[in-house]
Model the fold of this input.
Amino acid sequence: MKNLKKYWWIVVIVVAALTSVAYIKVSNKKLGPSSSASPSPSVSTSPAVKKPASSGGSAQTAPKTYDQLVDEYKDRRIQFDQNCQATPNSITYKNGTKIMLDNRSAQPAKVTVGGTSYSLIGYGWQLVTLSSKTLPKELQIDCGRAVNVGKILLQALILP
Done:
């Protein structure tokens, strides 16, 4: 009888874990990960999906799909493969540019841009706004244990 109770609890825990994993995978395919990283002086984050403030009667905007974001950020996206290698690995952006960090591996990745870390789940992504008070500035990109897999040269935005 004691062994039966032990096996029952193991089954309950395994089912709960599998249900949680399935829910997380389905949620991330629709929305991508939420932004939980804290901003720093050199890099700041923004949520992947912005929900408009509603005062009652207005319709809410549907969140963008992954494919829509890939199209929108086609020139401002850095992908990380299963070996945590960045593509492109050297690029220049203007100060204040919003980019997409895109993990194309099934494994989660900890990506660091200019000293600020971001946790990307498997096949997850995060939108990041690059900014610095001192320009030009070179931001080193690390991914997991792979150090210096890329660099971003951040330049001043000169308005006419």
